[in-house]
Amino acid sequence: MVFLTAQLWLRNRVTDRYWRIQEVLKHARHFRGRKNRCYRLAVRAVTRAFVNCTKARKLKKRNLRTLWINRITAASQEHGLKYSTFITNLIKCQVELNRKVLSDLAIYEPKTFKSLAALSKRRHEEGLAAALGDEKEPEGIFSRIVHYH
Amino acid sequence: MSSFSKATQQWATFARVWYLLDGKMQPPGKLAAVASVKLQGLHKPMYHQLSDCGDHVVIMNTRHIAFSGNKWEQKVYSSHTGYPGGFRQVTAAQLHRKDPVADIPEDILKNLVEELPQPRKVPRRLDEYTQEEIDAFPRVWSPPENYRL
To answer: What is the reported pTM?
Structure first.
């Protein structure tokens, strides 16, 4: 071994410990208590936070869909319809709007939602008439399916 | 599609509305279901769990609520005080007897906006029908003169 100076004798020393710790602490700065300052506690808290973040990506999709469904239920009840009737009849009229768009319309475009509800109600009545009435009567206006070829 | 800056400001969106619900001859479970929808704000298209969007519901005539079946004697409300030997079980009849029925204050009565429809249709008594309606009702059979009930 040839070490011409004392400095070269030192090997494998950590020199950037401060920055390694800051990398973790920067994600914990908005936490409550000592876990926003002390590295030991912060490591555990930050790991849990990241794990919850990944798990929540699936839950977010479920929660947002539930919220949209609740909002559409509220809006369709205002127009005297049930959510299930509204959605199924809208699909039968070939109106392929998803629940996100429907809930946004219900909040920001009430008149558009009112017309959608009226369309759904009319299709519902035509469906009932076709099921309960005689077979001889012709299909209703909104019951005709458009074929896109 | 829906831009928050382009939508016009509706200043009364988060205003709380006072509803009245008459509980005479109504099942308390259905009263609770109707009231809970309004209290949570699930009747509004802009519902969110964290936004305080519920309304107030005042239920009057709670003295005359009607449980169906034998629930007055059979339904048991259980609770525990936390102390040993503190398990309390009260039947619905006892709870109703000890429940205080307060008068609704005047300022609330003046603030009520709408009355909600009752969840159960109360049938009319025989003396509330007019003689013409009683005569118009079809008779299934009339007993012969020497028939003994």
So the answer is: 0.84
Query: Where does the pLDDT of residue A134 fall: very low under 50, low under 70, confident under 90, or very high at 90 and above?
Result: confident
- Picking from A107, A108, A123, A115, the residue whose alpha carbon sits closest to that of residue A70 is A107
- pLDDT value of residue A139: 75
Which of B1, B42, B43 shows the shortest C-beta gap to A104? B1
B8 DSSP assignment: P
Q: What ipTM did this prediction achieve?
A: 0.82
Give the count of Cβ contacts less than 8 A between chain A and B.
31
Q: For B56, how many CA atoms within 13 A lie in the half-sphere containing its CB?
A: 10
Q: Which of A48-52, A54-58, A129-133 has the lowest mean pLDDT?
A: A129-133
Residue of B nearest to A102 (CA): B45
Bridge pairing between strands B87-91 and B114-115: unpaired
Number of other CB atoms surrounding residue B93 within 10 Å = 14
Exposure letters A107-116 (e unless 16+ CB within 10 A, then b): bbeeeebeeb
**CB contact residues (below 8 A), chain B span 19-78, against chain A:** 42-48
From A71, A108, A113, residue closest to B47, measured CB to CB: A71
Nearest-Cα distance to chain A for B8, in Å, is: 9
Q: Under DSSP, is residue B57 helix (H, G, I), strand (E, B) or coil?
A: strand
